[in-house]
Amino acid sequence: AQSVTQPDIHITVSEGASLELRCNYSYGATPYLFWYVQSPGQGLQLLLKYFSGDTLVQGIKGFEAEFKRSQSSFNLRKPSVHWSDAAEYFCAGGGTGRRALTFGSGTRLQVQP
Amino acid sequence: DTGVSQDPRHKITKRGQNVTFRCDPISEHNRLYWYRQTLGQGPEFLTYFQNEAQLEKSRLLSDRFSAERPKGSFSTLEIQRTEQGDSAMYLCASSLSRDEQFFGPGTRLTVL
């Protein structure tokens, strides 16, 4: 079965520090992979997406993610975190034969001043 | 591009009542999705429309749930005989072909 796992429920980083949020997937073929961010009371906003090609993808707000087939991972990174990045982050995957997205359970990011 | 809109934003109802939610997708998007999100979890897929055709339904969508998308425009999600376990955020998303899904702000349902 297709699945997306986010091992970290909650992460706290200091403002200005680097960030890496982990995402592992289990799909029969190369999935489409996404990272979304959800702030309180807000809808899900797409940060970046991977369909094929270059395994390092750039997104909005200074985020990037790297697709590693050998590790079945799609980790999200940011070199310097801002207080406004505090939110819930969701990794999601979709297969070529299925239109619906499968989401991980999310990682809540807290940013300390 | 006015984004995906959902109405109402909040709904409180008593157990056993019926509720209906509306989703207006981005105008040119032919695909529409419904998801349910409970506290501390990621969204879970409920159902998917391509134009007016409902092409996929999750096993989470019990027979108390029904969704429609008349004329391939807005969509409604109805829950009959609500139960406390139906309390959740109901999210709608739309997309154009296989591109990214754009999400609405959601409807938060509380069943007392």
Output the structural class of chain B: mainly beta
Strand content of chain B: over 45%
Q: Stretches of chain A where pLDDT falls below 50 for ≥5 residues?
A: none
Q: Point out poorly predicted stretches of chain B.
A: none
Report, as a whole number of angstroms, the end-to-end distance of chain B: 36 Å
Q: Care to count the β-strands of chain B?
A: 11
Secondary-structure element series of chain A: EEEEEEEEEEEE
Tell me what the structure shows.
The complex is a heterodimer of chains A (113) and B (112). Chain A has 113 residues and is mostly beta strands. Chain A has no helices and twelve strands. In chain A, strands 2, 5, 6, 10, 11 and 12 form a six-stranded mixed beta sheet that branches. In chain A, a hairpin with a 4-residue loop joins strand 8 (64-68) and strand 9. The model of chain B has no long low-confidence stretch (mean pLDDT 93). With 112 residues, chain B is mainly beta. Chain B contains no helices and eleven strands. Chain A binds chain B through residues 4, 32, 34, 36, 41-46, 49, 90, 92, 98-106, and chain B through 4, 31, 33, 35, 40-45, 48, 50, 55-56, 58, 91, 93, 98, 100-106.
Question: Strands, helices and their partners?
Answer:
The complex is a heterodimer of chains A (113) and B (112).
Chain A: E1 3-5, E2 10-14, E3 19-21, E4 24-26, E5 32-38, E6 44-50, E7 56-58, E8 64-68, E9 73-78, E10 87-94, E11 102-103, E12 107-112
Parallel strand pairs in A: 2-12
Antiparallel strand pairs in A: 1-4, 3-9, 5-6, 5-10, 7-8, 8-9, 10-11, 10-12
Chain B: E1 5-7, E2 10-13, E3 19-24, E4 31-37, E5 44-50, E6 53-57, E7 65-68, E8 75-79, E9 88-95, E10 102-103, E11 107-111
Parallel strand pairs in B: 2-11
Antiparallel strand pairs in B: 1-3, 3-8, 4-5, 4-9, 5-6, 7-8, 9-10, 9-11
Characteristic key phrases:
heterodimer, A: 113 residues, mainly beta, six-stranded mixed beta sheet, four-stranded antiparallel beta sheet, 0% helix, globular, B: 112 residues, seven-stranded mixed beta sheet, 11 strands
